[in-house]
Design goal:
Layout lengths: L1 H33 L1 H6 L4 E3 L5 E4 L2 E4 L2 H11 L2 E2 L5 H13 L12 E2 L2 E2 L2 E6 L7 E12 L5 E15 L6 E5 L3 H14 L3 E8 L4 E5 L5 E4 L2 E7 L4
Helix pairs in contact: 3-5
Length: 233
């Protein structure tokens, strides 16, 4: 009986090892090679994963200081996301499994212009981190018309936890209508009186069959909405 138990554990560990090897090393390396041309020729209006796989589209932006952004999201009812650590990863897993809140659950790293996100915020939907509105921001070298820094970001709705369609890694799946998430975010900032104005710029362009880093489909009109934060009185 003890021998069978040990054999079962060994078999389970072997299967787990093969899964981790394929999902986190072999398959991402294949996607890196498969999409290398797309990344190299991109106009940089979409993010990439750590393996270079094209990720979420850039669809939002803000003009203002880091401090102003943090204050604006607090006023709009959004929480800053924790960094990804072993502790926060366990916490978000327990949140999903036990259906309990995790208001500052971490978001996975994505890269824009070669850098991981500088800021990330989220707004839970329901009791756990299974579903949530979330956005990542990157500080750019550009400025708005008032001389304050321009931040570009990617907003999407996490509709549930599952396995990546492309690599098999554990991940959140996003809702396909990323324009709706863009508009919800800007609507929250407007309704909380955080924006003085807004305008749109060209993003990835009209897309009906986009795919993010987890293989989730999305569609968009291809525009990014830029919000200009109010200056402190």
């Amino acid at each position: 009986m003890r021998h069978r138990t040990r054999a079962s554990i060994a078999a389970l560990l072997a299967v787990l090892g093969i899964y981790l090897l394929l999902a986190y090393l072999v398959v991402p390396a294949w996607w890196d090679f498969h999409d290398a041309g797309r990344v190299a020729t991109s106009d940089a209006m979409f993010t990439t994963t750590g393996q270079g796989i094209p990720g979420d589209a850039i669809n939002v932006g803000l003009v203002g200081s880091k401090e102003a952004i943090v204050r604006a999201f607090a006023a709009a009812g959004w929480d800053p996301a924790d960094k990804v650590t072993l502790r926060t990863s366990i916490d978000i897993g327990l949140s999903v499994v036990l259906d309990r809140p995790d208001l500052d659950a971490p978001v996975s790293p994505l890269f824009f212009e070669g850098r991981k996100q500088d800021l990330a915020f989220e707004k839970p939907v329901g009791k756990s981190a299974d579903e949530r509105n979330h956005v990542r921001f990157w500080l750019t070298g550009q400025t708005g018309s008032d001389g304050r820094p321009l931040w570009l970001g990617s907003a999407s709705f996490d509709r549930g936890v599952g396995f990546s369609h492309d690599t098999g890694q554990v991940t959140h799946h996003i809702g396909p209508d990323i324009d709706a998430e863009r508009d919800l975010l800007m609507g929250d900032l407007i309704s909380s009186d955080q924006l003085s104005s807004s305008y749109q710029i060209d993003g990835v362009g009209p897309t009906k069959a986009g795919r993010n880093g987890g293989g989730d489909p999305y569609f968009t009109d291809g525009k990014a909405t830029i919000g200009v934060l109010r200056t402190p009185l």
